[in-house]
Amino acid sequence: MKVGKIYLMLLVGVGMALASCGNSQNKKNESPVVDSDKDEHGCIASAGYIWSEVQKDCIRLWEKGVRMESVADKENTAYIVFAPDSLQVELFFSGDQPNEILDRRSLPGGDYAWNVEDDDTKNVRQENGRWTISQRGNLIYQQVDEIQ
User: What's the CA angle centered on 94, arms 45 and 117, to 5 degrees?
Assistant: First the structure.
């Protein structure tokens, strides 16, 4: 009886080994694709990573950024991502709009705003505890309330 069990186990083991060899032989002619999902910075897009210039790292916007919603169209979103020293902020927009990097500037009241010395630039600031993005004095994005 013991010999029968040994032969049965041996047969199962040999069968599994042959099956696995067959699978590797079928894929032998395929060339493996290495790093096909990485961008020029090594960020893995399929895992949700994107390069942030101000963070100098691959980040997930929903983990590192503050989600903003367009005032005009709720479908359009933006994320603001601060540099580790908060001297710059990077704006990530939905759609084809390019990212923008803004510099921190002191306001007369002691607060800060992030913008570029240009009248057409966007301004990031915190108003009433919420982050906003405005342009030419018009509110264009505001922070989305977090769902509890």
Answer: 110
39/35 Cα distance (integer angstroms): 9
Same domain, 70 and 136: yes
Do 65 and 124 belong to one domain? yes
Where in the sequence is the domain holding 109, given as residue range(s)? 61-143
pTM, 2 dp: 0.71
The reply to whether 65 falls in a domain is yes
Using one digit for the tens of pLDDT, what is the confidence trace for 77-100?
999 999 999 999 999 999 888 999
The answer to whether position 148 is within a domain reads no
How far is residue 133's CA from residue 68's CA, in Å, rounded to a whole number?
Answer: 8
| Rounded Cα distance, 22 and 17, in Å | 9
77, part of any domain: yes
Query: What letter does residue 144 receive in the DSSP assignment?
Result: P
Indicate if 71 and 111 belong to the same structural domain. Answer: yes
DSSP 42-86: --BGGGT-EEETTTTEEE-HHHHSEEEEESS-TT-EEEEEE-TTS
Encoded amino acid at 117, one letter: E
3-state helix, strand, coil in the chain (%, to 5): 20, 35, 40
